[in-house]
Amino acid sequence: MSGTEGTSGATTGTGAREEGCVFCGIVGGDVPAELVASTDRVVAFRDLSPQAPLHVLVVPRAHHADVVALGAADPATLADLVATAARVAADGGCTAGEHRLVFNTGTSAGQTVHHAHGHVLAAPGASLDGHL
Ligand code: 5GP
Ligand code: ZN
User: Fold this and answer.
1) Ligand 2 centre from 53 Cα, in Å?
2) pLDDT tens per residue, range 85-119
3) Which is the closest atom of ligand 1 to the Cα of 102?
């Protein structure tokens, strides 16, 4: 058979774990990170180089190159990512429903890790002006 639903495709970029991907490593527990939330679909952890008082990355457990690829392949997971980002922001002290969620998409737009991720950026009680 030559189907595309095989279980071994570690480098397909369409849901499997991608060899050498740092966020796949965090999801798999091989790379340390400070986890702040997780669901069966997504994991949220603090950014290594925070650009705001609250700076958390929310990533799908499965590897997708960017948010557009994620939305096309698995919209339910994108919805969960957005909902988890809102929960992280609220738990971090933001007014419910008020936070910044940024998806750098593609190298020329500043994406450096090519595993889809949303940046939750917040400065509870202050302005986000000047942050990312
Ligand atoms: P991008 O530039 O791709 O939108 O964002 C990638 C983000 O991942 C950056 O803000 C960077 O600080 C963060 N980052 C890169 N490597 C690691 C890591 O190993 N652990 C954590 N927690 N964050 C990382
Ligand atoms: Zn990955």
Assistant:
1) 26
2) 999 999 999 988 889 999 999 999 999 999 999 99
3) 4
> Which tens digit of pLDDT belongs to each residue from 45-86?
999 999 999 999 999 999 999 999 999 999 999 999 999 999
DSSP character string of the chain: ---S--S--TT-SEESPPTT-HHHHHHTTSS---EEEE-SSEEEEE-SS-SSSEEEEEEESSEESSHHHHHHH-HHHHHHHHHHHHHHHHHTTPPTT--EEE---SGGGT--S-S--EEEEE-TTS--TT--
Say what the pTM is: 0.89
* Cβ(8) – ligand 1 distance below 6 Å: no
Domains defined along the chain, listed by start: 22-122 (3.30.428.10)
